[in-house]
Design brief:
Number of helices: 7
Mean pLDDT: 88
Strand order of the largest sheet: 1-2-3-6-9-10-11
Order of helices and strands: HHHEEEEHEHEEEEEEHH
Number of domains: 2
Helix content: 10-25%
CATH class of the largest domain: Alpha Beta
CATH architecture of the largest domain: 3-Layer(aba) Sandwich
Strand content: 15-25%
Structural class: alpha+beta
CATH superfamily of the largest domain: Extracellular Endonuclease, subunit A
Radius of gyration: 22 Å
Low-confidence stretches: 18-25, 76-88
Distance between the termini: 69 Å
Number of strands: 11
Bound molecules: manganese (II) ion
């Protein structure tokens, strides 16, 4: 009885304040009954409706508190086919779309997830590159979800690689966007286990040098830096899964390091994808961004003015 009175007074107060709550949630997505996160929505507008209905942001759809929900989601009105335009609306492509990935070329096929963006190659069965932003907002303490699975976002005429395609190959299912970079929520972590985020990686590369650079990146974030990372494979060592999946000769990664929003420097590595790299240091493989651009034909950080790009891409990290 007492509770009912309190509730009634509360609603009356709200009405008096001229902001009567919309008690009908019938047109909101189902997840509002349990727990929503950005990956529950197909479009930014859909997420925005939920944020507008729950301004206390109980589902944490507005990490940066600017009133806009799930900014990395695609806009509902798909009027934009210009990759540059897509780039500017997706945080993971803020500094450029390295191959002008798009929705027409199945060997340079753009996939935009809330957690990362990538260019997929249906012919090689691996991404050409994966790009993701990293700051402390992505880092929490959820467990590795380990739910490796095919990516259902690929077009119908593209083979969706399965977790078992790597079985018995001697290569790891190696993450490009690491599980450890997406630990703020279970669904963000789970997204890194899609097979479109994997390349066949030699165990010594994946579990040692590569992992150590991943850890170093998170160390930079703990010092307050913001990173924009792009990673992929280069060349062809062999193919596995009856030719459906290419094993790259090298793994590479380029990192744009920002401090208080200002570009500080870049880190680039090119590491052989074999077990000869055991017990080596990732610093042994430092090259310039320019060298990765030459080897891969990609253009990183194309959204950065050319004069600054030239400077930051020529210098190897110290
Ligand atoms: Mn790994
Ligand atoms: Mn460039």
């Amino acid at each position: 009885m007492k509770i009912k009175v309190v509730r009634l007074v509360f609603i009356l107060l709200l009405l008096l304040a001229g902001c009567s709550p919309d008690l009908s949630t019938s047109n909101l997505p189902n997840c509002t009954n349990s727990d929503c996160d950005c990956s529950d929505f197909a479009t930014q507008e859909e997420a925005q409706r939920v944020l507008d209905a729950f301004p206390d942001d109980r589902y944490k759809l507005d990490r940066d508190g600017n009133g806009i929900a799930c900014e990395s989601l695609a806009r509902g009105k798909k009027t934009t086919t210009n990759p540059k335009a897509i780039a500017s609306s997706n945080i993971h492509l803020k500094y450029g779309n390295p191959s002008n990935a798009n929705l027409k070329d199945t060997n340079n096929y753009l996939l935009e997830k809330p957690q990362y963006a990538l260019s997929y190659n249906c012919k090689t069965g691996i991404p050409n590159w994966v790009s993701w932003q990293l700051d402390s907002g992505w880092l929490g303490s959820v467990e590795r979800s380990d739910d490796f699975r095919p990516d259902s976002d690929l077009p119908d005429n593209c083979y969706a690689v399965r977790p078992n395609d790597y079985r018995g190959s001697g290569y790891d299912r190696g993450h490009l966007a690491p599980s450890g970079d997406r630990t703020i929520s279970q669904s963000d972590n789970s997204a890194t286990f899609l097979m479109t985020n994997m390349i066949p990686q030699s165990p010594a590369n994946n579990r040692e040098v590569w992992r150590e650079l991943e850890e170093y990146s998170r160390e930079l974030v703990s010092q307050g830096k913001e990173l924009y990372i792009v990673a992929g494979g280069e060349g062809k060592e062999k193919a596995i899964a009856d030719g459906k999946v290419t094993v790259p000769k090298y793994t590479w990664k380029v990192i744009l390091v920002l401090d208080n929003g200002n570009i500080e420097n870049t880190i680039a590595v090119r590491i052989p994808n074999n077990d000869a790299v055991a017990r080596t240091d990732w610093r042994d493989y430092i090259v310039s961004v320019d060298e990765i651009e030459q080897k891969t034909g990609l253009d990183f950080f194309s959204a950065v003015p050319k004069s600054i790009q030239n400077k930051i891409e020529a210098k190897a990290y110290k």
